[in-house]
Amino acid sequence: MFTLFCLPFAGGSSYSYRDFQSHIGDFIEISPLELQGRGRKYGTPLQTNIYDMAEGLYLQMKDKINGRYAFWGHSMGGWLAYLLVKKLTQENKPLPEHLFISGCEAPSIENRRRDRHKLSKSEFIALLRKYDGCPDEVLQNDELMELFEPIIRADFKAVETYDYEPSAPLNLPMTVMRGLNEEISYRDVLRWQDETVHKIKLLQFPGSHFFIYDHLPEIGRIITDTLGNIQC
Predict the structure, then answer these.
(1) Interatomic CA distance for residues 40 and 13, integer angstroms
(2) Mean pLDDT of 179-200
(3) What 3 state SS string does 86-110 have?
(4) 146 exposure class (CB count in 10 Å sphere: 0-12, 13-18, 19+)
(5) Residue 71: which of 55, 89, 84 has the closest Cα?
(6) Total-model pTM
């Protein structure tokens, strides 16, 4: 059996991966992790520092490492997965056997988006609409936006204030996935190769930043086949 720990994207929660279990092999169990201030942890203080987020996720999952496991992180979740692996390494904990990253440039890429969390409300909503990850019925509902906007702004701030700290490449296989129409370039995604001694597998899919939701069966097959081959 494998546990697949899923790391949330900005504004996401553990519920963001709720439909994925039906798309993967029966030897894999999904275990979505939760950040503060949303989902199962709604009401707890939001965090705006990505290292604090990674520390909280580490405390959440360290006692759940009872066997073989892997990480999947989308967008901000990709960087969280990377930082979590570094934390596990520092603590001499067993490491995941594979890292799946999607919709996320390599952490060494210069952060060119540092002010999104400071945008006016109208500019912020326009940006979210462009990313195509939040339904219009939510973006047009003031009550729902009062709930979600602080969460997304906090997550954006965590990403935009992250300063990359170079370290030795990880001894960890990686599969990196990108949407062909998202603003993250192929070249910036390819730089994940700097973070591992293994040759990365880079896959591209039709779609924008949230392409994963249009390709869950295919992504499920890729993760199932990858972990199945490791299991053999």
Answers:
(1) 8
(2) 96
(3) HHHHHCCCCCCCCEEEECCCCCCCC
(4) exposed
(5) 84
(6) 0.93
Residue 213, C-beta contacts closer than 8 angstroms, at least 6 positions apart: none
Q: How many helices and strands, by DSSP H and E, does the chain display?
A: 7, 6
- Outline where 38-141 has alpha helix (H): 50-61, 76-90, 121-131, 136-139
Unique residue bearing structure tokens 């990365």: 200
Residue 59 and residue 57: Cα distance in Å, rounded? 5
6-60 pLDDT, tens digit per residue, is 999 999 999 999 889 999 999 999 999 999 999 999 999 999 999 999 999 999 9
User: Bridge partners of 201?
Assistant: 175
User: Looking at residue 232, what is its pLDDT?
Assistant: 64
